[in-house]
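Backbone Fold Data
Goal — fold tokens
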Amino acid sequence: MSKIEQQRIFEPFYRGSNIDDTSGMGLGLTIAKNLITLHGGQIQVESQEGVGTTFTVTIPV
């Protein structure tokens, strides 16, 4: 995913440019980030266009 998309993926209702016929409202990552943040954690994204994307979630215990 592009750097611009990486900056926007946690915005409510944002949907990527390559979604084609994939259903959804663009809220999943927003909700996930909010829940992780409420627990004192972080979510990070690393992506290479055309290769893949990795999300890393860290929550303190």
Observations:
- The first helix runs from residue 3 to 8.
